[in-house]
Automatic annotation (TrEMBL):
Lineage per the UniProt record: Bacteria, Pseudomonadati, Pseudomonadota, Alphaproteobacteria, Hyphomicrobiales
Pfam families linked: NIPSNAP
InterPro entries: Dimeric_a/b-barrel, NIPSNAP
Name recorded for this polypeptide: NIPSNAP family protein
NIPSNAP domain segment(s): 5-100
């Protein structure tokens, strides 16, 4: 598995629009074949950084997923919404693989 981390720089005055965008991806991404971990909007600290995180089997699966997403009505609509409202100022994608597995058992803290 590889995990795609998308770092968004958003207009802080349009955070609500980004949250609508994130909820739409919450429907479209799983339907198109990726394992959505989640979209994260600013809460504390930076008001301009947001993230989207999902996993796919490999880069070939990613390309097939992207084609399905481009053909999906909600996927197209969401992309057009972002272009029209201009709440995303910059978007960077990084693909990472899990390096810490297998994980150890956690300790109980009192």
């Amino acid at each position: 598995m590889i995990t795609c981390f998308i770092r968004y720089h958003i207009d802080p005055t349009k955070r609500a629009a980004f949250e609508d965008y994130a909820r739409n991806w919450g429907q479209a991404i799983p339907r198109c074949g990726a394992d959505l971990i989640g979209y994260f909007a600013p809460h504390e600290g930076s008001t301009t950084l947001a993230y989207g995180v999902y996993s796919v089997e490999n880069l070939a699966a990613y390309e097939a997923y992207r084609a399905r997403l481009a053909a999906d009505p909600l996927g197209r609509e969401n992309y057009e919404f972002a272009m029209r409202e201009k709440f995303i100022l910059r978007e960077d994608r990084t693909f990472l693989k899990l390096a810490s597995a297998p994980h150890g058992e956690g300790e109980t803290f009192k």
